[in-house]
Amino acid sequence: MPKQFNVTFQEALEMIEMLPEHQREDIIDIVQRRMVEQKRERLAKNIRKARQEYRRGDITEGTVDDLMKSVSE
Predict the structure, then answer these.
(1) Contact between residue 31 and residue 23 where contact means Cβ atoms under 8 Å apart
(2) Are 16 and 24 in contact (CB under 8 A)?
(3) CB distance 10 to 21 below 8 Å
(4) What is the Rg, in whole angstroms, of the alpha carbon atoms belonging to the chain?
(5) Of 3, 40, 43, 68, whose Cβ has the fewest other Cβ atoms within 10 Å?
(6) CB 27 within 8 A of CB 19
């Protein structure tokens, strides 16, 4: 489990700015990759949830027009 640090956003930026340029570029790459992975995980979770809801019959099929009609009723 990662350690918890009480570092403000500004302090983190200042620490990063003290690093050599190539290390700052590495940090950008790592953070971007981690963000992409987190987005993939959220998407996969949402897909699993939607599939479960569909199997239970909690989701109805239809067109956008059908949806708009049901909302306005």
Answers:
(1) no
(2) yes
(3) no
(4) 22
(5) 3
(6) yes
- Identify the pLDDT of residue 11: 95
* Residue position matching structure tokens 């009723």: 73
What's the pLDDT score for residue 71? Answer: 83
Q: pLDDT under 50 in the chain at which residues?
A: none
Cα-based distances in Å from 5 to 12, 57, 66:
10, 45, 51
How many residues comprise the chain?
A: 73
pTM above 0.70, yes or no: no
- Opening angle at CA 69, ends 67 and 71, nearest 5: 70
